[in-house]
Write a structure and sequence with these properties.
The chain has 134 residues and is mostly helical. The protein has 5 helices and no strands. The protein has a single domain, classed as Four Helix Bundle (Hemerythrin (Met), subunit A) (Up-down Bundle), CATH 1.20.120.
């Protein structure tokens, strides 16, 4: 990650102690996990009719996604641009989910974030395999 915005977003929602020695890739995974956790919590608040708590959790998820977007390396080219566009889409869908209290939108966004997360799992698995072979 090129700037600490994403890390700050994650720390602000409660995971500060776990990030100390984490790699950039692991930090991205942690941020994605944090966003997914906030989305799941927001969905529960929707189901219970807890509007204020729903909004708070969705706001935290948006902050994390915006932090991820802000930390993208523009020199990575098309991949960075596409991922940035996807993060913008996700943030917009989260705003819509908040306004409409729609758990189906939260499910859609969570599925997208899980796909991104699984790609990072593959990247980290490849790095671990490379380190083991060295």
């Amino acid at each position: 990650m090129n700037n600490p915005q994403g890390v700050s977003a994650y720390q602000s929602v409660g995971a500060g102690g776990a990030i100390g020695g984490a790699s950039r890739e692991r930090l991205v995974q942690m941020l994605l996990d944090g966003a997914l956790e906030r989305i799941a919590t927001a969905k529960g608040h929707i189901q219970r009719g807890e509007a204020a708590q729903k909004g708070e959790q969705i706001g935290k998820a948006i902050s994390i996604v915006d932090g991820l977007r802000g930390s993208l390396n523009p020199e990575a080219g098309e991949i960075s641009q596409n991922l940035g566009d996807l993060y913008v889409y996700i943030s917009g869908r989260l705003l819509t989910a908040n306004a409409e209290a729609d758990p189906a939108i939260l499910d859609e966004v969570a599925d997208l974030l899980r796909e991104i997360r699984s790609a990072w799992d593959v990247i980290l698995a490849g790095q671990t395999a490379d380190q083991g072979a060295a």
